[in-house]
Amino acid sequence: MTAISYQLYGSRNWPLPDTLTMVKATGFSDVEGYGALFAQAPSLADDLAAAGLSMPTLHYGLDDLEADPQAAIDLARAVGAEAVFAPYLDADDRPTNRAGWEAFAQRLCAAGKPLQDAGLTFGWHNHDFELVDLGDGTTPLGIIAAASPDMKLELDLGWVVRAGLDPVDVIKTFGSQIHTAHIKDVAPAGDCTDEDGWADVGYGTTDWAAIHAALQAAGVTRYVVEHDNPNDHQRFASRSLATVKSF
């Protein structure tokens, strides 16, 4: 059974109470949180409970995690999360060679250990920059995954497509190390320019039937629908949930 969540980042331009009401009314039971939201919503656990929603996974900034891992653990416990993913690395902070990425992977392992010791799953959420060939057939994401068998991945399939790779091949490469998949669609070239070129799930160019089969073969049991910049988040939520349920 595959669980389906809604990434709240896509609704950052709407008030949180309205978003939670919309998400629940659309048919979601689970949501995924993100870093900026936590500082803005001190009553998040109560807000989720009032809306009848759960937050089984969340994004938590690496710098914040390193500065105060207990705060991340406390937040995860408060909202009922079982997995925490570090989501991003600013361009100026990204390593430029294999040695740099290997050092970064060890940094991730160290940052995640307190969470893992507390019984949480920890991992990395990719964009496209971790999928660039470093010149020897390896990628930063491959280095991150190889750093520890306990390092899980939240594979963002929209960014895999944007990186010019075949999502099915990438899923087969990382297999059971993929804990969660971000289900994000890419619009045809020139379309949805006011939405940064992203599309509602099922309304873009992505071959979801093949991807879904590969994810199921890899044992992935949670899908998180996401759109980085929808101009109508209710439209995105309803159309995308219908698509994922049809897989």
Automatic annotation (TrEMBL):
One of its GO terms (molecular function) is isomerase activity. Keywords: Isomerase. Gene3D superfamilies: Divalent-metal-dependent TIM barrel enzymes. The keyword Isomerase applies. InterPro entries: IolE/XylAMocC-like, Xyl_isomerase-like_sf, Xyl_isomerase-like_TIM-brl. Pfam families: AP_endonuc_2 (PF01261). Residues 70-230 form the Xylose isomerase-like TIM barrel domain. This is Sugar phosphate isomerase/epimerase. It comes from Aliiroseovarius halocynthiae.
